[in-house]
Amino acid sequence: MDKLEMRHTLLAAKARKKMSWDDIASAVGMSPVWVASACYGMNSASADVAHKLCDVLEVESDVATALTAFPTKAWDEAIPQDPFIYRLYEVVGVYGETLKDVVQEKFGDGIMSAIDFTMEVDKIEDPKGDRVLLTLNGKFRPYKSWYAAWAHPALLPRQRLSMRQALALWCIEWAAFAAMGISIKASDAATTAPGSADTPHGTHQMFAKAFKRQASHAPGDRAVHHLATSAIALNKRCESMASFSASDSATTGAGNKKRSRSALPSAIQVEMG
């Protein structure tokens, strides 16, 4: 049974039993709006709720299987013709930009979730005419900013997710320095401002110090400690391998230079172990 057949079966059963959405929701312990959305095929139910719903409406068990299936949330994209649905469409069209501006002014750049979300419908009695109260309650989800892969969490303390990937990239960079015969000294690092590793000179020492600082800030984090230890050891290994200058490389001959290049990946594998 697919969602469409399930929908027809459940709506027919609801009409046959003359039950309201409030009646069904009370019987299964869920919100009336959520129950209706599940019966219309726009939400999936847990197995327990699906079987309760089938028992309440007295439908076959294969309907429960369809209720638990994950839906494809698609709908007719044509302008709705039903007056009630069109009025909601009109509300979004007229007030959409206004709501976006007001909400983002209060919360920042982001959206209101329709996943971490509840919706309720209430009737407000009024002598001039009863009123409909729609409550849309969604979690605010801010848009995320992210850093370049080389911008390590040690230099950006709040960002620690790509630590291993960033270290691997730096290992490749160090390997390139050594292979090119660039001599990197602590004095170069001293002239490089923290967080501005935009030249090859100074990156060894700055990154090693950064790893060490990160480890001291999170002493209980074994992964950070391991990476800090590996980075510092690798830094020393790369320093010794990169200590020959470009002029030294030119005089040692192509064969020696080739051996220096081939030795570096081995050193990295040992330290990353």
- Give the overall pLDDT as a whole number: 73
Query: Which percent band covers the strand fraction?
Result: 5-15%
Round the Cα radius of gyration to an integer and report it: 32 Å
Q: Helical region count?
A: 12
What structural category arises from helix and sheet content? mainly alpha
Spatial shape: globular
Unreliable stretches covering 5 or more consecutive residues: 155-161, 180-202, 241-273
**End-to-end Cα distance:** 53 Å
The arrangement of helices and strands along the chain is HHHHHHEEHHHHHH
Largest sheet descriptor: 2 strands, antiparallel
Number of strands: 2
Helix content: 55-70%
Strand order of the largest sheet: 1-2
What this model shows, in words?
There is one protein chain. The longest helix has 25 residues. This protein has twelve helices and two strands; from the N terminus they run ααααααββαααααα. A two-stranded antiparallel ribbon has the order 1-2. The C terminus is likely disordered. A hairpin with a 6-residue loop joins β1 and β2. The chain is globular. The protein is mainly α and 273 residues long. α2 crosses α3 and α7 packs antiparallel against α12.
Topology, please?
Elements: H1 3-17, H2 21-28, H3 32-39, H4 47-57, H5 62-68, H6 83-107, E1 110-124, E2 131-142, H7 163-180, H8 186-190, H9 203-217, H10 222-241, H11 246-252, H12 254-272
Helix pairs in contact: 2-3, 4-5, 7-10, 7-12, 9-10, 10-12
Supply database-style keywords.
single chain; two-stranded antiparallel ribbon; 12 helices; 273 residues; mainly alpha
